[in-house]
Amino acid sequence: MPTTPKLTDTYQSPPSAGLRHIGFIPLLAVFYGYTAGGPFGYEAIFKSSGPGMGVLFLAVVPFFWCVPIGLASAELNSILPVQGGFYRWSRAAFGDFWGFQCGW
Predict the structure, then answer these.
(1) In Å, what is the CA distance from 14 to each residue of 78, 82, 100?
(2) pLDDT value, residue 70
(3) Total Cβ atoms within 10 A of residue 10
(4) Each residue of 29-84: pLDDT tens digit?
(5) For residue 89, which of 71, 104, 101, 77 has the smallest C-alpha distance?
(6) CA-to-CA distance for 58 and 45, rounded, in angstroms?
(7) Which of 38, 40, 32 lies closest to 65, judged by CA?
(8) Among 41, 51, 55, 70, whose Cα sits 20 to 30 Å from the Cα of 18?
(9) Using the 8-state DSSP alphabet, how is residue 84 labeled?
(10) Contact 70, 27 (CB under 8 A)
């Protein structure tokens, strides 16, 4: 008499050959680079506050900015591991329009 297959017998884990993983510290470094790099008006920072406060600002503030973002994306990646990051997470949570806005 044939037996019916169980769900655990037919389930195969998805192939992970194409997936790349990033740790928390490299992810934090990427967010630091996003925060500290770019045309954000550095000339005005150094002109108005001086070089000491400008360098202190560029060294300290990105950590307040990127540590919560790094923790949030590490948490979201553990809950919903998809390729696409914030675009896919915001699309799943808020719909196609806001997913597009986040990706853009």
Answers:
(1) 16, 12, 27
(2) 81
(3) 7
(4) 877 777 766 656 677 777 888 888 888 887 787 778 778 888 888 888 888 888 87
(5) 77
(6) 10
(7) 32
(8) 70
(9) T
(10) yes
pLDDT in tens, 77-103: 888 888 877 888 888 888 999 888 887
Q: Which of 41, 22, 39 is closest to 31 using CA atoms?
A: 22
Cβ–Cβ contacts within 10 Å for residue 62, how many? 18
- Burial group, residue 66, by CB count within 10 angstroms (0-12, 13-18, 19+): buried
Per-residue pLDDT band at 13 (split at 50, 70, 90) = low
Single-letter amino acid, residue 12: Q
pLDDT at site 12: 53
Residues 6+ apart with CB under 8 A from 85: 73, 77
- At 68, is the secondary structure helix, strand, or coil? helix
